[in-house]
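How a chain folds remains the central question behind the approach discussed here. In the encoding step, the backbone of a single protein was reduced to a row of integers, each denoting a local shape. We regard such an encoding as a compact summary of how the chain folds. The sequence in question and its structure tokens are set out directly beneath this paragraph:

___
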Amino acid sequence: MQAEPYENESTVIPTYRRKCAPEGLCTRRQLRKRGLRPNGHDPVAQLRYWRQGWRYAYLYDVALTAPVRPMTPGRWRSIAAMFAARMTCPQCGELREEFIATSVGHCTHCTCPEIGCRQCDFGLPASPEPTHENPPDEPPRPLMMAA
């Protein structure tokens, strides 16, 4: 089935409706699924679809694509270094097991003032301290009546 492009605002590249693009044109995700990459070529067409407003997806010619480059040891090292930088606390300088939130700027251990806090040291929820307001045989009172 040969799909005809319909008029769009820009008319720079052909625009097709969803599921009407000709054979041999794929989006980036479809190329990646096949183990291909655009190889530096510009898109040859675009898809126009509605999802809470008009959206566009570029289409690439499969004949111009190349295989995805394999991961080399150097690329693995650079990715590991990036992850280590995101997981190192700038205040205490320790490598943590979670990413440091950029909104806070330091790890949870540096946030908590208590030394030996279970939540900070082991990532476990801190156990609440028992309160001795009510005798053990009485049911707990609602907060409004506790005052």
Q: What stands out?
A: The first helix runs from residue 28 to 33. The mean pLDDT is 79.
